[in-house]
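Project outcomes to date are best conveyed with an example. Our students and postdoctoral researchers have been running inverse folding experiments weekly, and each run begins with a structure described purely in tokens. The record below, which covers 168 residues, was selected by the lab manager from last quarter's runs and is presented without edits.
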């Protein structure tokens, strides 16, 4: 898959959704904020997250995550560890042969895609999602893992309590 890093601001100007002057003013403020441009424009109220996600999806012809279209394979939580998923703001959706569909906040993040392809040795197909979608997906994909962790913690706590009772 050939990947071209397109700048969101340029795409918004090209689409007529923002003037060059407005973009430049926002870029100055955005740089001081330390946020990525899309997040900055959302926080500032210029666009909603849904508008930005829809725009990027259409402009870059990247599919948008919808639960109906992307069944989740919980087994992928073993292939892509939770720490990695959180670091790159991704959630594995499903695997089809040698193609891994991954929900991402920023499907233009070539570093995340390349790192995931190296980690899994599988070609990655990005699917754009909202912050809320990502949060829900991480919970679904890693539910069994996090659930197991809390069960183990409770068992360790009960074991410690029984040891303390025995020694009293």
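After processing, the design step wrote out the following sequence:
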């Amino acid at each position: 898959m050939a990947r071209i890093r397109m700048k969101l601001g340029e795409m918004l100007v090209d689409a007529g959704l923002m003037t060059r002057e407005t973009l430049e003013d926002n870029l100055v403020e955005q740089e001081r904020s330390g946020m990525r441009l899309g997040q900055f424009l959302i926080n500032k109220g210029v666009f909603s997250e849904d508008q930005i996600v829809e725009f990027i999806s259409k402009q870059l012809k990247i599919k948008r995550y919808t639960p109906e279209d992307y069944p989740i394979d919980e087994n992928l939580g073993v292939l892509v560890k939770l720490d990695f998923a959180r670091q790159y703001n991704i959630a594995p959706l499903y695997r089809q042969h040698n193609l891994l569909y991954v929900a991402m906040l920023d499907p233009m993040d070539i570093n995340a895609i390349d790192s995931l392809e190296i980690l899994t040795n599988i070609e990655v197909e990005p699917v754009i999602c909202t912050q809320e979608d990502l949060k829900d997906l991480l919970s679904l994909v890693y539910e069994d893992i996090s659930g197991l962790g809390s069960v183990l913690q409770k068992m360790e706590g009960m074991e410690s309590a029984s040891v303390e009772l025995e020694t009293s």
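Confidence is low (pLDDT under 50) at residues 146-168. Strands lie at 90-96, 99-104, 123-128. The training component of this project remains on track.
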